[in-house]
Design brief:
The chain is of the alpha/beta class. The protein is built from six helices and eleven strands. It folds into two domains: about 170 residues, Vaccinia Virus protein VP39 (Rossmann fold); about 50 residues, CAC2371-like domains (S-adenosyl-L-methionine-dependent methyltransferases, Single Sheet), CATH 2.20.130.10. The radius of gyration is 18 Å and the shape is globular.
Length: about 240
C-alpha cells in the first residue's frame, strides 16, 4: 500500500482533512509524561508521511521515525528536515539506540498478519525503550468492536483538484477486508479511478496484553471516545 508518490499524496490530502494530527500528538505526549515526566526523546514507528511526527517534534527535544514504505518516508523527509527517518520493518528493526517513548499511531499495527508478528513488533519496540520508557500503541478494532459491512466516505477539494474516497469493510475470519476506491479529478486530466484492498488483523485485547507482557512491559488499555480505538500504554516491569 502507498508504494508510490501519488498514492502517498492522496493519503496526505484525505487524512489531514479529517484528522487532527496535532491534537492526537498532544494527547499521546501527555500520556507519556504522566508516566515519565522528563521524557525528551520519541520514536514514531510506522510514521507514514510524518504528520504525527511533526506534532511530536513540537513536544520532544529529539524525535525519529521508522517507516517501511519508501514513498511515505520520502514525504516525511520533505516535511521534517533534519529529523532522522529510518527505513525498516516494525517486527525486526534495530536502530542501536533507545528512546523515552516509542509510539505507533493510526492503527498501523493492525497491518501485521499474525499474533507472532504482533509479539515480534512489540518486542522490537520494547527493546528501543529506555529503562523507564513508555510504549504507546493505538490498536485497530477488536473482534467484538469491528462493524461488519461498514461504509465510510470522504471527499476533499484542493484548488482545482478533488479527491473522493469510499470504503467497504467486511470481516474474513480474524481479518478486516477493507476495499477502498478513489476518484481523483483535476482540470487538466479529468477523472481517474484507483482502488486497493487492505487487510488488517482483528487482534483481541488479550493478544495485545500478552504481547506487552512478553516484551517485559506492564500495560494499561485506555478506552477511546467517539469511536476512537484508544491506546495500550506500556511501562517497564
Amino acid at each position: 500500500m502507498y508504494e508510490n508518490a501519488s498514492a502517498a499524496e492522496i493519503y496526505d490530502a484525505l487524512y489531514q482533512d479529517r484528522k487532527d494530527y496535532d491534537a492526537e500528538a498532544a494527547q499521546v505526549a501527555a500520556l507519556v509524561r504522566e508516566r515519565k515526566p522528563g521524557a525528551s526523546t520519541l520514536l514514531d514507528v510506522a510514521c507514514g508521511t510524518g504528520v504525527h511526527l511533526e506534532g511530536f517534534a513540537k513536544r520532544f527535544d529529539k524525535v525519529a521515525g521508522l517507516e517501511l514504505s519508501e514513498s511515505m518516508a520520502a514525504r516525511a523527509t520533505e516535511r521534517l528536515s533534519g529529523v532522522p527517518l529510518h527505513h525498516g520493518d516494525m517486527r525486526t528493526f534495530d536502530l542501536g539506540e533507545t528512546f523515552d517513548a516509542v509510539v505507533i499511531m493510526f492503527s498501523s499495527i493492525g497491518y501485521l498478519d499474525t499474533v507472532a508478528d504482533l509479539n515480534s513488533a512489540v518486542a522490537a519496540m520494547s527493546r528501543h525503550l529506555a529503562d523507564d520508557g513508555v510504549l504507546v500503541v493505538e490498536p485497530w478494532y477488536f473482534p467484538d468492536t469491528f462493524l461488519d459491512r461498514h461504509v465510510s466516505t470522504h471527499a476533499v477539494k484542493r484548488g482545482s483538484e478533488g479527491i473522493a474516497r469510499v470504503s467497504h469493510s467486511t470481516r474474513e475470519g480474524d481479518k478486516t477486508r477493507m476495499e477502498i476506491h478513489y476518484l481523483v479529478a483535476d482540470g487538466a486530466n479529468g477523472i481517474e479511478h484507483r482502488s486497493e484492498v487492505d487487510y488488517l488483523t482483528l487482534f483481541s485485547p488479550e493478544e495485545y496484553t500478552e504481547a506487552f507482557r512478553q516484551g517485559g512491559l506492564n500495560v494499561t488499555y485506555l478506552e477511546g471516545t467517539a469511536g476512537a480505538p484508544g491506546f495500550f500504554v506500556g511501562t517497564r516491569e
